[in-house]
Amino acid sequence: MLRIVLVGIEGPVNLGVIARTCVNFNVDELYIVKPIASIEEALNYAARGRDFLLKARVTDSLEEAIKGVDLVVATSDEGYSAGDMLRQAVDLNGFAEKIFPRTRSVAILFGRESTGLTREEISKADVLVTIPANPSYPALNISQAVAIVLWELWKQRSITATNIPPLASKETLRQLLDLTVEISKLVMTTEDKITRSRILWRRILGKALLTEKEAALLRYWLQRVRRHISSDKT
Amino acid sequence: MLRIVLVGIEGPVNLGVIARTCVNFNVDELYIVKPIASIEEALNYAARGRDFLLKARVTDSLEEAIKGVDLVVATSDEGYSAGDMLRQAVDLNGFAEKIFPRTRSVAILFGRESTGLTREEISKADVLVTIPANPSYPALNISQAVAIVLWELWKQRSITATNIPPLASKETLRQLLDLTVEISKLVMTTEDKITRSRILWRRILGKALLTEKEAALLRYWLQRVRRHISSDKT
């Protein structure tokens, strides 16, 4: 299941064209979070994506729009900033080829034309993905970015292999994340480090494509670590 | 040398956005044949592609726009019609990977929003390329089509992007693996579990595409964990 989530979209032309592109590449669901653009006006630019746009879910919060999805993917043209844990993006190529094909349901978030996604919005995602474009001007128009991302995913979706193991469920990954947070609280000295460690682990779990089997062993490993550290405390 | 040729483009928004996309993907030249769209108006939508649009060559004929180019490529969403020699298109994938990298100078033609390229215009090209999209609605907006084609060609031209973070080195990953082994030895009860934990971590580090920044924090996290556990032992 592929869902596109537009957060705070501003331009009706962009919104209409994106709806059309969603149909061109067979997107299952479109969610629109707090749009500034008029959907009524956007319908004029949707061509045969009109019905799809009319079926889009408009929500008041990002949380509603990503509920129940296995993998939440933020996008940004600012994919990299050396000292910033939030700006450690995966290249669209690696994402489309490696991470996306292994996931049952994916929501891809695109931010405002003017300012993109906020840091808080990005931190709600499992992975940050970027389109590696011209270093001197990598900022694409949002509808172009959607088109390129959808095209890359489209190419991957037609291949269904059966000789690959099932991936860990979202619930399993959540439990693993909780375990790492417990450990971080035991070993880290500041709140900031605990927070950043949480982002790190969210990214690791988002990117590592753990199979069910691997996740089970990692859980055991983390539980052992936690037990040893907490016995130290008592 | 990569040249984009827009034939009879109708919409100023499309024209502006296409100019921007050309800069995003480092196109060398833009030719505009008999435009219907106002270039003046299009400048409003070009963002930092403005100067590139101002430098575009406007011509009265397609011949002028493809003169001196090694390979002329027409594009159409009608890539295939069984009995029609003109509609025997190459898949964009095959083109970008096989044909494009072997050619010194390429002009890619995009037709009108309403009616595309005429049969006569297509017949002037060496190759017809199509984007294989949703069979029930493969017709992309022209600016989306340009974006996807440019993205595919961009990947072949291997210009190094700077908005993606550098990945951790192999040596860094090896050090991280060693750290996990040390911890496993402290917390695991059997040799077999230590061995399997090592395999697990090797896989995690192999798949997670850790950036340098992420690896540095993970190292710190593991070091903290190790210190807490070994103080427990002494």
Structure summarized in a few sentences:
Two copies of one chain form a homodimer. Chain A has 234 residues and is an alpha/beta fold.
Please give the structural blueprint.
The structure is a homodimer of 234-residue chains.
Chain A: E1 2-7, H1 12-24, E2 29-33, H2 39-42, H3 50-54, E3 57-59, H4 62-66, E4 71-75, E5 90-91, H5 92-99, E6 106-110, H6 119-123, E7 127-130, H7 142-157, H8 170-187, H9 191-207, H10 212-233
Parallel strand pairs in A: 1-2, 1-6, 2-3, 4-6, 4-7, 5-7
Helix pairs in contact in A: 1-7, 5-7, 8-9, 8-10
Structure overview:
The first copy, chain A, has 234 residues and is α/β, with parallel strands linked by helices. Chain A folds into 2 domains: 2-157, SPOUT methyltransferase, trefoil knot domain (Alpha/beta knot), CATH 3.40.1280.10; 170-233. Chain A is built from 10 helices and 7 strands. Chain A has helices spanning 12-24, 39-42, 50-54, 62-66, 92-99, 119-123, 142-157, 170-187, 191-207, 212-233, and strands spanning 2-7, 29-33, 57-59, 71-75, 90-91, 106-110, 127-130. The first copy, chain A, has a 7-stranded parallel β-sheet with strand order 3-2-1-6-4-7-5. In chain A, helix 8 runs parallel beside helix 10 (212-233). The radius of gyration of chain A is 19 Å and the shape is elongated. At the A-B interface, helix 1, strand 5, helix 5, helix 7 and helix 8 of A face helix 1, helix 7, helix 8, helix 9 and helix 10 of B.
